[in-house]
Design goal:
Blueprint: H1 3-22, H2 29-52, H3 58-89, H4 96-111, E1 119-122, E2 126-128, E3 133-137, H5 148-161, H6 183-196, H7 198-208, H8 225-239, H9 246-263, H10 273-289, H11 298-305, H12 319-333, H13 337-353
Parallel strand pairs: 1-3
Antiparallel strand pairs: 2-3
Helix pairs in contact: 1-2, 1-3, 2-3, 4-13, 5-6, 6-7, 6-8, 6-10, 7-8, 7-9, 7-12, 8-9, 8-10, 11-12, 12-13
Length: 355
């Protein structure tokens, strides 16, 4: 195949992706329009290459290779969007994406960050920057998976708040060579803790972070689970300066995580002053930047936890309260996590509908 034929092949791929997006109809129209616009711009770039393809081709092949990779990345995004949209439309998310949407809208309202997107099921959690779509790991089986959406929203928030651009003297912990490569992930964890409090801590430490892999570092982008657990607990400890009860939760959660990692024969992370500094600085930064986002209504979660089976008037409760109430009920009951999850989902739906 010559250069012109290779370009045409990419144009054909774009046409197929465009058709798939258009076949979604009115599902999630804002992002459908965004993808359609990006496909048009990619097509224009490739078509401009066609007009030059009859001349000397050495540099044109190199230019096209860059375009080809960008085209494939765009098509992969289109595929993930189509798959997630159809899975959500058919109910394969168990209706939990709608609750996640409402939770993130509440975050956005408190933080005033301008988020106007939605969540979709996918093969793993992630934040897609251009369309601002937040993907949740499939299968989304219960209320316990939803707090992770707060971490992904933290990635979005970091693009708006620009925490790394703050004066160096306020962020000495961020300058460490050991922390700097993982700053974005750790900031997202700090954000999730700040926004959801104990519910985020418990979902991470008791459900998502595998104790047997606590000290593994695989990709150079994500810190170890032990590092993340330390930072998350340190942020909640900072929040405990103003919220009664958090200090006890930090101690109990740290002990439970320590017991799990010891049982998995993993070394325990010792005191880490750099992470303590980062937790302190992230907390101060978030409290000054988005003060209304901080989860301080712990008494409301405690009250709601006793009402999950037969909730009364839900006015005044937030979805963050519902997620925290679910974890309180689960830890008190010690079992029946599926039943508690289902009750918390029903309560969350009512809270979301009342928005």
């Amino acid at each position: 195949m010559n250069l012109r034929e290779h370009i045409q092949s990419s144009l054909d791929d774009l046409a197929a992706a465009e058709k798939a997006i258009s076949n979604l109809g009115t599902i999630l129209p804002r992002v459908s329009e965004d993808f359609a616009d990006r496909i048009r711009r990619m097509r224009n770039t490739l078509q401009a290459r066609v007009g030059k393809s009859t001349g000397p081709t050495d540099s044109l092949w190199q230019d096209f290779e860059t375009d080809r990779k960008a085209c494939r990345d765009l098509i992969r995004e289109c595929l993930a969007f189509v798959e997630g949209s159809l899975m959500r439309q058919k109910g394969f998310d168990n209706g939990l994406c709608s609750i996640a949407d409402a939770l993130l809208r509440q975050f956005n309202e408190s933080a005033e960050l301008g988020w106007n997107s939605f969540t979709l099921p996918a093969d793993g959690e992630s934040f897609e920057g251009l369309a601002e779509v937040i993907r949740l790991r499939f299968p989304i089986t219960g209320i316990w998976d939803l707090p992770i959406a707060a971490h992904e929203f933290g990635h979005f928030a970091s693009t708006k708040l620009k925490p790394a651009a703050q004066p160096r003297e306020d962020y000495t912990g961020f300058q460490s060579d050991a922390i700097a490569p993982f700053f974005e992930e750790l900031f997202a964890d700090a954000f999730g803790t700040f926004a959801l409090g104990p519910a985020f801590v418990r979902t991470c430490l008791f459900r998502r972070f595998p104790p047997a892999a606590a000290n593994e570092q695989s990709d150079g982008k994500h810190p170890t689970f032990a590092t993340r657990a330390y930072l998350i607990l340190a942020v909640l400890k900072q929040m405990g300066r103003t919220v009664k009860g958090y200090t006890t939760i930090v101690a109990l959660s740290a002990e439970r995580w320590r017991a799990l990692t010891q049982a998995a024969q993993q070394p325990i992370m010792k005191e880490n002053k750099e992470l303590d500094t980062m937790a302190r600085d992230c907390y101060r930064f978030l409290r000054s930047s988005v003060p209304r986002l901080e989860y301080t209504s712990w008494p409301a979660a405690q009250s709601l936890s006793s009402e999950l089976a037969a909730p009364g008037d839900l006015k005044g409760y937030s979805l963050a309260d519902a997620l925290n109430a679910a974890w309180i009920a689960r830890l008190v009951a010690g079992s029946n996590s599926q039943e508690i999850s289902q009750r918390a989902i029903e309560v969350s739906k009512k809270i979301a509908e009342a928005e």
